[in-house]
Amino acid sequence: MLSKNTLPQIACCKAWEEVLLTFREVALGLPGKVPDAVSTHTEEDRVAVYEIINGEVYEMLTILSTGDLIAPRRTKTEQRRLAKVARGEAVA
Asked: Could you list the residue range(s) of the whole structural domain that residue 42 is in?
């Protein structure tokens, strides 16, 4: 049988689960929305901007899911290389 204290804890966990799932869905939608908004303000094309933001969002979600605050970060050079690969350009 559940104690009186267990039911509020279960309700709290369910509420947090809903918040985190909503946060995750919004975060995963950012890479598709932001490139259009910033494409007029940068020399990078939409695909390059998408790749950079997508990488950052996945890195953030990995940190949140694992608790590993010292996740490896991509350098600007690595981000540009990934953007070139995404566009199908030759990479040296």
From this structure: 6-87
